[in-house]
Specification:
CATH superfamily of the largest domain: Kelch-type beta propeller
Radius of gyration: 23 Å
Structural class: alpha+beta
Strand content: 25-35%
Number of domains: 2
CATH topology of the largest domain: Neuraminidase
CATH class of the largest domain: Mainly Beta
Number of helices: 6
Helix content: 10-25%
Largest sheet: 4 strands, antiparallel
């Protein structure tokens, strides 16, 4: 190797130094700009790529280009940046192995858009790194004492441990929880005395919960989903009625509005946004648990029925993984379930996958690091504090720890923030509660 050639270690050092400089540039830019979200991310990707480009040239000259490109998770880049910048890079186009990696990234985005991609497989490059995967929040719920919680517990992926974060303003069980744009929203529920229509938002930058506009209808057992920005509050119930009401919250204006109601009332419903639709899965219509599923098209402001599940269930958890909808646990009327079903919108087909290690009604679920986490619930005899995770590659659930409070009816969501941003408040307002 020629003496003037940069070796791999020197190139990595150069890249690290460049990243520090690029981080400061981004920090300076963010202080004078209102840009955020996807535009900010694409800016960061562009700046990082410019800095990385010099090192790529050296790796290319040394014959190590493919080795270093394997370390870059191209599928996780914004598709506009992927096709507009990376795909046009000459040194990538000239390397067959790099072109294979680019094809993998293209197929990943096609697969997520519900287009059929034969023989597509997920890999480590389609999974976020631990420090960018976000923080898993478990919010509210109730335990054996019967009193709803205002406490929240947060999961550190790097440390594989849970800690208490700042408490909500209100106690809330059977609360709807979602994270949008790096903030966590808790909506509705029951505080032990009455049903709630109020909403509060947790901002990791201030470590505080802030009250926001209330829904029009007070209810518990609602589901939340976000599609393109707005938050949808779906179904729910009070002591007299199961609702088919759907409300939409605009974050910028802090206002709720009514959209088309579902075809069926659904209390204890599960929901998730998938591609261009919001799905409402199962629930209870006031008579029995439901196996039916419907989805909302915001452009038509209309709900339509899709293929029903194999099992009736309410109080189930719903999440998205690899372009498919997963429904986990719940109750068939009063019987807690361990069964798990997967819906693929490309084939309009439901399949059973591996069952939970224990039945979980009122379970909270969310997707983290390419796995589905199931938190708490009730197994028919006791409230649970155990947490288990589903690996779709192995088709297996395994126990991965526990939260401090045994709880069911909690809201679970993944927030795009760092664990270090959230103030650890120790053991919360009380010690581990009775699970019975």
């Amino acid at each position: 190797m020629a003496s003037e050639s940069l070796n791999a270690k020197q190139a990595r050092n150069r890249l690290t130094k460049g990243k520090r400089q690029q981080h400061q540039q981004i920090k300076n830019r963010s202080s004078v700009s209102d840009g955020d979200g996807e535009d900010s991310f694409i800016f960061e990707a562009n700046e990082a790529w410019k800095d990385f480009h010099g090192s790529l040239l050296q790796f290319y000259e040394n014959g190590d280009l493919c080795d270093v490109t394997l370390k870059v998770r191209l599928p996780l880049l914004p598709v506009d940046f992927l096709m507009g910048v990376v795909a046009k890079e000459q040194i990538v186009k000239q390397n067959l192995k790099c072109r294979d990696l680019l094809d993998e990234a293209r197929n990943y985005h096609l697969h997520l858009s519900s287009r059929a991609v034969p023989d597509f497989e997920y890999s480590i490059r389609t999974t976020p790194r631990k420090h960018t995967a976000g923080v898993l929040f478990c919010v509210g719920g109730r335990g054996g004492s019967g009193d709803p919680f205002r406490s929240i517990e947060c999961y550190s992926i790097n440390k594989n441990s849970w800690f208490f974060g700042p408490e909500m303003n209100s106690r809330r069980r059977h609360v709807g929880v979602i994270s949008v744009e790096g903030k966590v929203y808790a909506v509705g529920g029951h505080d032990g005395n009455e049903h709630l229509g109020s909403m509060e938002m947790f901002d990791p930058l201030t470590n505080k919960w802030m009250m926001k506009a209330s829904m029009n209808t007070k209810r518990r057992g609602i589901a939340l989903a976000s599609l393109g920005g707005p938050i949808y509050a779906i179904g729910g119930l009070d002591d007299n009625t199961c609702f088919n009401d759907v409300e939409r919250y605009d974050i910028e204006s802090d206002q709720w509005s009514t959209v088309a109601p579902m075809n069926t009332p659904r209390g204890g419903v599960g929901s998730v946004a998938l591609v261009n639709h919001v799905y409402a899965v199962g629930g209870n219509d006031g008579v029995a648990s439901l196996s039916s599923v419907e989805r909302y098209d915001p452009h038509l402001d209309k709900w339509i029925e899709v293929k029903e599940m194999g099992q009736r269930r309410a109080g189930n958890g719903v999440s998205e993984l690899h372009g498919c909808l997963y429904v986990v646990g719940g109750f068939d009327d009063n019987s807690p379930l361990s069964s798990v079903e997967r819906y693929d919108p490309r084939s309009n087909k439901w399949d059973y996958v591996a069952a939970l290690t224990t039945p979980r009604g009122g379970v909270g679920i969310a997707t983290v690091m390419g796995k589905i986490f199931a938190v708490g619930g009730h197994n028919g005899n006791a409230y649970l504090n155990t947490v288990e995770a589903f690996d779709p590659v192995l088709n297996r659930w395994e126990l991965v720890g526990s939260v401090s409070h045994c709880r069911a009816g909690a809201g679970v969501a993944v927030c795009a923030c760092l664990t270090s941003q959230i103030r650890d408040v120790g053991h919360g307002s009380s010690n581990v509660v009775d699970c019975m």
